[in-house]
Every structure is written in structure tokens, then in C-alpha cells.
Amino acid sequence: MSEESPRQGSESVSRVLSAAELSVIRMMLLGVRSSLDLSPEALSIVGVEDMDDGGMGSIRFVSDKPDRRLGEELARETFLDEDDVEVIATLSLDNYGDLFELDIWKVDFSPVVSLRLKVPSAAS
Known about the structure:
single chain, 124 residues, mainly beta, 6 strands, 11% helix, DUF6984 domain-containing protein, DUF6984
């Protein structure tokens, strides 16, 4: 992916959300009710690690809780990448009910160009 989510080799390096990731997550959470503090302030300081996903931009939220596993889906959004290929983003919770992953999947399996949301144009 572009400069929005730097990769650090195969090592897991904890960092905060990029502005683009934060924007995508905030958009995904519109209308979502949760007991978690999902405010922009709370999200701006949460730790994440890049996942080895071929450059699509998936991230895992850092936690010190043991034996974390994928739990339920919190939100899902579809948008177009800059090259007009569909991208599906899924925000998931873990088995403790905490943020677990932002899974980014580009339907043609190519790397994501940008997480800047591109709204599909209406059919004429």
C-alpha cells in the first residue's frame, strides 16, 4: 500500500492508526452502537500492527489480553480504490469484545493504492 500504512518488513511493529485508517474506521462506525469507546480521541491513540496481507492494508489492534481470537463483526464497508477496484473493509471484535482487526480485502487481490474513500459514481 502507499505511504498511508508503512510496512516494517515481516516484524510486527506497533504504531498508531494513520489518518487514512482512522478516517475509514470512523466512516464505518457511523450509526454503530457499541459499549466500547470508539471516539476519535480514543481511536487516535490505540496501538495497531500491520498484517502480512500482500499490501492490502489490514491491521490488528494491539492488546495484552491472552489467547485473543476473532470474535464478531462490528462493521463492514465497501468502497472503490483509486484504480476503481472494489475494496471491502471489515472491522471485527475479538473474543473479549475489544477491537481485533480491520481486514482490508481488494477483490482482485492487488495491493490497495489508497484508503482515501472514493465514492462510486451513480449509474447514468
